[in-house]
Design goal:
This protein is mostly helical and 94 residues long. Helix content is 55%, strand content 11%. The chain has a domain of 54 residues. InterPro entries: DUF3077 (IPR021427).
Amino acid sequence: MTPSIVINTVGGATFAKCNAQNQPLFRINAGISCEEALEQASLLMDCVNKLTFLSGMENDNASMVWASHYLSEMAKAIIDDVTSGLQLAQGGGV
């Protein structure tokens, strides 16, 4: 039986850029299993899906659009970091 390989996040992806220097406010933590990280990304994207649907049904609801934007940015950072972890595990570096 082949043991399963645990692939973790590398902690390189950032999100929520701010200030004049466009510095990231948040970073994905290194060492989280990619399976758990992708589960969180899926949950975030489910929220984005629901918010964009609701905002499309209502007129002039900018708060739902901005919430969707920030949640999707978080999900993208998770997926980008998982991708880096997979590349590192395959010997391709980050």
